UniProtKB/TrEMBL annotation:
Pfam families for this protein: AP_endonuc_2
Keyword Magnesium in annotation: no
Superkingdom of the organism of origin: Bacteria
Domain Xylose isomerase-like TIM barrel: residue ranges: 28-262
Lineage per the UniProt record: Bacteria, Bacillati, Actinomycetota, Actinomycetes, Micrococcales
InterPro entries the UniProt entry points to: IolE/XylAMocC-like, Xyl_isomerase-like_sf, Xyl_isomerase-like_TIM-brl
Keywords (A to Z) from UniProt: Carbohydrate metabolism
UniProt-recorded name of the protein: Xylose isomerase-like TIM barrel domain-containing protein
Length: 268
């Protein structure tokens, strides 16, 4: 995001998922007030998250851009935008319409056999045809009847898969018991986006803790990206549903932003 590589400054976005169950307007307002650089929009059943003109109205009103569109490929958004490839194509279209830079997508579920069959090649083709960076997110195994089950295809881990771009999520890495620093180093130039969060590594739940509140080497990974002068967007995607007051939610979001800036800003 930095125009001059010699002057490196991390670009930190606030994801609409961080304010759930509140919506898009509240995210724009919080992002502007707390000093974030942009907004990441997770497309959900909330109509405003799907509508170009309403998103652009928010960009104009709050004077903050949209950097990322998260396609509705989550389990709870399966009914949004119809068929699976339609979701990816519409997310790419929305990305261009609102001036964003990247689409985040999850890998298919194993029961989506037709969609999963040519997913890696299909993502590359849609990316080429729409001139859009489509970044596939790392996921994690599920536990079914007390046993670990791989429910994503070709795999929950993007390592070893031939994706052009990958989104790395620290909470998902904790659940999968993966080393984020090693993974980011292995991905190299294929790292297209980061979801800044954390996890305890003690559960198969997707916790989305504040960065630094879990077991992942989040600080070391951000510092590595800083030293590499990585040019992508760091999207804060933390769960604030346990916050008791709006003031506490602001504190958590401000802490996450400060964490990113502290570990990614070069020392003079």
């Amino acid at each position: 995001m930095s125009e001059n590589p010699a002057v490196y400054r991390p670009h930190v976005a606030l994801s609409t998922s961080s304010l759930y169950p509140q919506g898009v307007p509240e995210t724009f307002e919080a992002a502007t007030r707390l000093g974030y650089d942009s907004v990441e929009v997770l497309v959900t059943h909330e109509r405003m998250s799907q509508l170009t003109h309403q998103l652009l109205d928010s960009v104009q009103k709050y004077q903050i851009p949209i950097s990322t569109i998260h396609a509705p490929t989550l389990l709870f958004t399966q009914q949004v935008w119809g068929k699976s490839w339609t979701k990816i194509q519409m997310a790419a279209k929305l990305t261009h319409q609102v001036g964003a830079e990247v689409v985040v997508a999850h890998p298919p579920f194993r029961w989506q056999r037709k969609y999963a069959r040519n997913f890696v090649a299909g993502v590359r083709e849609v990316s080429r045809m729409t001139d859009t960076k489509i970044s596939v997110e790392n996921m994690y195994p599920w536990r079914v009847a007390g046993r670990e089950a791989v429910v994503y295809s070709p795999h929950y881990s993007p390592l070893g898969q031939d994706y052009d771009w990958v989104t790395w999520d620290f909470s998902h890495a904790a659940t999968a018991k993966m080393d984020s620093l090693a993974a980011v180093k292995e991905l190299g130039s294929r790292l297209g986006h980061v979801h800044l969060t954390d996890g305890s590594g003690q559960t198969l739940a997707d916790e989305h803790l504040l960065p630094g509140h879990g077991v992942q080497p989040v600080a070391q990974t951000l510092e590595y990206l800083r030293d590499q002068r990585w040019q992508g967007v760091v999207g804060v995607e933390v769960s604030t549903r346990k916050c008791e007051t709006p003031e506490q939610r602001d504190e958590w979001l401000a802490e996450s932003l400060d964490f990113a800036r502290r570990h990614m800003t070069p020392t003079p």
